[in-house]
Amino acid sequence: MKIDNNITSSRIKRVLSPKIIAIVFLIVALVTVVFYVTIENNDKKEILIWYVTTESEDCFSDGTLRLINDYGAQHGIDKVILSRRHPEDTYFDVAISTSAYYNCDIFIMNEEMAKKYYEMDMFLPLQESGFEGDLLYIDDKPIGVLIDEGYYLLINANLDVDLQIIYDIFEIFKR
Description:
Elements: H1 9-15, H2 18-40, E1 46-52, H3 62-74, E2 79-85, H4 92-103, E3 106-110, H5 111-118, E4 135-138, E5 141-148, E6 151-155, H6 163-174
Parallel strand pairs: 1-2, 1-3
Antiparallel strand pairs: 3-6, 4-5, 5-6
């Protein structure tokens, strides 16, 4: 038995009737509108902070987080989210190279972790003149500001928030 699988214009016209083409076009248009409205036109501004630590105690106070949230609210930031991450979790490397790389604004991590992920061009170099205190240098570039013994604030290179707001948040953390 031979199966006829030749593509002919009559078969194409039969399968791709104007009704089917219109339905496919409407579905594509509807999906496009839904994605545009929900993703592209999202006016909510958030700052995501990844706190990478193996310790149970924070290197900053709860009052610091309240000050950061208040500062953010005054400058058009709807929410400041602190996400504590354990570097020994099974999927930590995957999460930091995907989710954090594209969504995080500020990292809090120790020098060892900063050096480990520096090669991925994950951190934005800092303007030295804007900071007092100890800075973390890698390849003669300042990338982190010391906030507590061994923990540094670092800025994600894929930042989509005004840099001055981030620098002001760094100053709040350093208090």
